[in-house]
């Protein structure tokens, strides 16, 4: 009986801490009966969990009589210790560029500063990353704003919770050619397309509109290899990899920028519509200016990437 009691109280402490993470200092605490209903436990179990968190210094309360009980002090770092049972898990693109290395390092720095364990999985293709969040495999995903907006237009149950601004995701896209004399898409060309990437697919379809070409399904990070091996004649890819790896032998041209492309350069973090706890944890721990500062330090070579 005691074992069951302590197990139930421990679980309630975790769930109550998750609820309290979404409350700000000065706000009214939900009444015990409301918390009891939300957590599905007895009134006494809720009171025991609340008392425990108070004794740990996570929260301080002020009773204002008929007005209710208000939060007079709150320590989110202590609350997170009890709200997160293991670690926060997210996903982002493969860190093949210094920009991505800097972003990943910035995420680890932000969470590490608050003593929260972060585990990032590196998954190619924005569609797969978004779907993995929807399926509950990861708590959050890093994508371009364009990809997130397109997924929302298609009805994905997600929301953007942080936007890191232009050029935080990539600098720009380019059109690469296998033949050094090529300058534009031509009829008969074999064109790489990555259906798993909202951005690459959109630009590829736009640039080839009106041309008689053959699409070759290929992951974006294999496009350069495909060009050199003669598998494809052209493909859209990320300019950052060209610069970082000094691929000066490649023939490419910049793609004219527009509002759509600007959104492709903006890194955002998405969660599901119902992931209020993950949303709160990410927002309370990831400071945009701090992450961008780390990203720039990694890109400048002043900081060693850690991810």
UniProtKB/TrEMBL annotation:
Domain HTH gntR-type as annotated: residue spans: 3-74
GO molecular function, one term: DNA-binding transcription factor activity
A Pfam family annotated for this UniProt entry: YhfZ_C
Keywords per UniProt: DNA-binding, Transcription, Transcription regulation
Taxon lineage: Bacteria, Bacillati, Bacillota, Culicoidibacteria, Culicoidibacterales
InterPro entries: HTH_41, Tscrpt_reg_HTH_GntR, WH-like_DNA-bd_sf, WH_DNA-bd_sf, YhfZ_C
Keyword Cell membrane: no
Record-annotated membrane-spanning stretches: none
UniProt name for this protein: GntR family transcriptional regulator
SUPFAM superfamilies per the UniProt record, alphabetical: Periplasmic binding protein-like II, Winged helix' DNA-binding domain
Organism (species): Culicoidibacter larvae
């Amino acid at each position: 009986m005691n074992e069951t009691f302590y197990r139930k109280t421990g679980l309630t402490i975790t769930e109550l801490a998750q609820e309290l993470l979404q409350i700000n200092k000065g706000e009214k605490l939900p009444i015990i009966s409301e918390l009891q209903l939300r957590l599905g436990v007895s009134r006494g179990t809720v009171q025991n969990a609340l008392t425990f968190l108070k004794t740990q210094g996570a929260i301080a309360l002020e009773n204002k009589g008929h007005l209710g009980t208000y939060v007079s002090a709150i320590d989110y770092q202590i609350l997170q210790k009890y709200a997160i049972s293991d670690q926060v898990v997210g996903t982002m693109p493969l860190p093949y560029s210094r920009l991505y290395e800097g972003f990943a390092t910035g995420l680890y720095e932000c969470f590490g500063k608050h003593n929260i364990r972060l585990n990032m999985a590196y998954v190619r293709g924005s569609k797969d990353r978004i779907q993995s969040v929807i399926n509950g495999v990861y708590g959050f995903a890093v994508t371009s704003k364009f990809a997130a907006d397109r997924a929302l237009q298609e009805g994905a149950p997600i929301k953007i919770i942080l936007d890191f601004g232009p050029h935080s995701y990539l600098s720009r896209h380019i059109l690469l050619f296998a033949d050094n004399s090529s300058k534009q898409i031509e009829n008969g060309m074999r064109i790489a397309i990555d259906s798993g990437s909202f951005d690459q697919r959109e630009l590829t379809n736009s640039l080839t509109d009106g041309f008689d070409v053959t699409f070759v399904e290929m992951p974006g990070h294999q496009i350069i290899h495909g060009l050199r091996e003669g598998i494809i004649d052209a493909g859209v890819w990320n300019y950052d990899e060209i610069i970082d790896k000094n691929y000066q032998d490649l023939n490419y041209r910049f793609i004219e920028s527009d509002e759509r492309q600007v959104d492709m350069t903006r890194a955002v973090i998405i969660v599901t519509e119902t992931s209020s706890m993950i949303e709160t944890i990410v927002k309370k721990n990831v400071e945009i200016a701090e992450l961008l500062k780390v990203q720039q330090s990694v890109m400048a070579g002043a900081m060693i990437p850690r991810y």
